[in-house]
From TrEMBL:
InterPro entries: C1q_dom, Tumour_necrosis_fac-like_dom
Superkingdom field: Eukaryota
Organism for this UniProt entry: Pinctada imbricata (Atlantic pearl-oyster)
Classification via Pfam families: C1q
Name of this chain's protein: C1q domain-containing protein
Transmembrane regions listed in the UniProt entry: none
All residue ranges annotated as the C1q domain in the record: 1-73
Length: 73
């Protein structure tokens, strides 16, 4: 099996236009993806923007198995 982009699902976390974090899931034989998780702690100020964006993947697995959480401390 090769590890081409078509067998990976990338998700990046951005803060004010800067890419800070990458989570990556790789397809294994049979079409199942390994689990991927990550955590980042940011100090935010009024007007800051934070978002998640998929990467150069051809596709990400079709089931709604992705979650994003945030907390205000």
């Amino acid at each position: 099996m090769s590890n081409s982009d078509s067998q990976r699902c990338y998700a990046y976390i951005y803060h004010n236009g800067n890419r800070l974090l990458l989570s990556q899931s790789i397809e294994e034989n049979g079409g199942y993806y390994e689990a991927a998780s990550n955590t980042i702690l940011l100090t935010l100020t009024v007007g800051d923007r934070v978002w998640i964006q998929t990467g150069a993947s051809t596709f990400c697995y079709g089931y709604p198995n992705t979650a994003f959480s945030g907390w205000k401390l």
